[in-house]
Write a structure and sequence with these properties.
The complex is a heterodimer of chains A (268) and B (269). Helices cover 80% and strands 0% of the residues of chain A. With 268 residues, chain A is mostly helical. Chain A has two domains: 46 residues, no CATH class; 218 residues, MetI-like fold. Chain A is globular and about 70 Å long. The relative contact order of chain A is 0.13. In chain B, 38% of the residues lie in helices and 23% in strands. Chain B is globular and about 55 Å long. Classes of the chains: A mainly alpha (268), B alpha/beta (269). The interface between A and B is medium-sized, with 21 and 28 residues.
Chain lengths: 268, 269
């Protein structure tokens, strides 16, 4: 994933393709080390393949699940649920955060609820979600909503409250005479970088929450894929699911960082 | 055509004071009382030690702060809040990082009922005056400090203000950039003839720019001395009369600083 700012990108191109991989190399290196350690452990301890299969078996299963479309379908299910809940969270949390950051009294009214509810992990909501919504889509989306809501809300509030007061003065001098126009023209754009970080972090927590929810109550999704692998004693299938979760989570985060580097302008 | 529609307006400051209340309920006199008249189109520079209330004075003139007592009038009208008619250049640029250079300059123009075409022309003209026409589409984070402050100056002059407030605008810049921007500012000021209130703690900057220099005392800030600088622009600050003036101002400021330090030691002990 290229998250290069212009000067580094220029330097990289000067040194050819090898330098172009500079950002990916540490991750490839970590992946290779993990594979080698895994292979060595398998060779030394010779575990039963239902407990720890060698990397090559997992690669074969990966190819198999990819070819018959199961991996793609499970990924689509998990991703669809996360996207749906994450967007819904953003639609609720960003406006609420903007208002709370802007109004001391509103923040005082709502913050106690936030602080009491926030420590309850989204995973702890799974049983309630099943009791309320059954094991259909709504329950899982609800769990992810809980997981994504607070990061977005808190970073939005923070973003609004940390707007440089000098920018507010500049906005006032240059014609934002009402609170509303100052808010729209200065506060919201100035808070955008922080809101964006919240969205990125929330996508990560949402991705973790959906797997947990699918472990408990689902017939589809990557969480289901690994839970099912455990039930049928297929450690290779479990590992394929885990690797997919890890790689996808990493790619989503890199994608958000790329967007952030490219489109989000921070001060100084 | 972009014509200068506004000319500088006179400022009148009458018995202005500002008193803050600390958290413990103690009253701290930050400013005044001070009284000063600034003529139409005059370049007034205020010099003083840190904490002399010169920023407070500027904040009152900008309309961010209400004075505790006294009056500040622009062309006879009391200041009630921030206004495009009193434009400002801030010490740390205060540019909007999410906007391009051109859109920063246009920011204030957009709040005026001016046709878009004309807004565009005015903004480009101001960028040309500060020599940044080629940077119109750049992002703020791609600029150096000196370039940022030039954008801020273009933004401030673009709204066609009658009073320009400048809060240590060149304080964060290196000496060479500073010298260059002082010349540019004078050039723009002479072309557009606005009333300028400029705050600095650089004595040579004050002498280079000012029609009149006010020296403020520390805590509470009062006007301690006042000089008119008659030398024509561009000035050579190394000539004898200007050197003598510099020494006189430094002597006064040294006195003030000694007092301020003594006061701090008293507070600290």
């Amino acid at each position: 994933m290229s998250v290069a700012s212009p000067p580094t990108a220029r330097r990289a191109s000067e040194r050819g393709w090898f330098a172009g991989t500079a950002r990916v190399r540490p991750f490839l290196y970590a992946a290779v080390v993990m594979l080698v350690v895994w292979q060595i452990v398998v060779m030394i301890t010779r575990p039963d393949p239902s407990v720890l299969p060698p990397p090559i078996d997992v690669a074969l299963t990966f190819g198999h699940l990819l070819r018959d479309g199961e991996l793609g379908l499970d990924t689509a299910y998990s991703l669809g649920r996360v996207l749906c809940a994450w967007l819904f969270s953003a639609i609720v949390a960003i406006p609420l955060g903007l208002l709370m950051g802007n109004s001391r009294s509103l923040e005082k009214t709502i913050n106690p609820f936030v602080e009491l509810l926030r420590p309850i992990s989204p995973l702890a909501w799974i049983p309630m979600a099943i009791l309320w919504f059954g094991i259909g889509e709504l329950g899982k989306v609800f769990v992810v909503f809980i997981g994504t809501f607070f990061p977005i809300l808190l970073s939005t509030i923070g973003g609004v409250k940390e707007v440089d007061p000098v920018l507010l003065h500049a906005g006032q001098v240059f014609g934002c005479t009402s609170r509303i126009s100052l808010f729209r023209r200065v506060v919201v754009p100035a808070a955008m970088p922080s809101i964006f970080v919240g969205l990125r972090v929330a996508f990560g927590t949402g991705w973790a929450a959906i797997i947990a929810a699918e472990l408990v109550a689902a017939h589809t999704g990557l969480g289901y894929l690994i839970a099912n692998g455990m039930d049928i004693l297929r450690a290779d299938q479990v590992l394929v699911g885990m690797i997919a979760i890890g790689v996808l989570g990493f790619l989503f985060d890199s994608f958000f960082r790329y967007l952030q580097g490219r489109y989000v302008r921070t001060a100084r | 055509m972009t014509t200068v529609t506004n000319i500088g307006k006179p400022l009148r400051i009458c018995g202005l004071t500002k008193t803050y209340e600390t958290r413990t309920g103690e009253r701290v006199e930050a400013l005044g009382p001070i009284s000063v008249e600034v003529e139409r189109g005059e370049f007034l520079v205020v010099v003083g030690p840190t904490g002399c209330g010169k920023s407070t004075l500027l904040q009152i003139l900008a309309g961010f702060l209400e004075p505790t007592d006294g009056k500040a009038l622009v062309d006879g009208q009391p200041i009630t809040g921030p206004s495009l008619d009193r434009s400002m250049v801030f010490q740390n640029y205060a540019l909007f990082p999410w906007l391009s250079v051109l859109d920063n300059v246009k920011f204030g123009l957009r709040r005026r009922s001016i046709p878009r075409r004309l807004q565009h022309e005015i903004a480009l003209r101001q960028l040309m005056l500060v020599g940044l026409l080629d940077f119109a589409d750049k992002n703020i984070d791609e600029l150096s400090g000196g370039m940022k402050q030039r954008v801020a100056i273009a933004r401030a002059f673009a709204v066609d203000p009658s009073v320009m407030l400048m809060d240590e605008p060149f304080g964060a810049l290196d000496a060479l950039t500073r010298r260059f921007l002082q010349r540019e500012l004078l050039h723009i000021w002479r072309e557009q003839q606005r009333t300028v209130v400029f705050i600095t703690h650089s004595v040579s900057e004050a002498i280079f720019l000012a029609d009149r220099i006010l020296v403020m005392s520390a805590r509470p800030g009062r006007i301690k001395a006042e000089w008119r600088v008659e030398a024509p622009h561009p000035r050579d600050v190394t000539t004898d009369p200007l050197r003598r003036l510099e020494n006189q101002i430094y002597a006064l400021l040294d006195e003030e600083l000694a007092e301020a330090f003594a006061w701090e030691r008293h507070i600290g002990g």
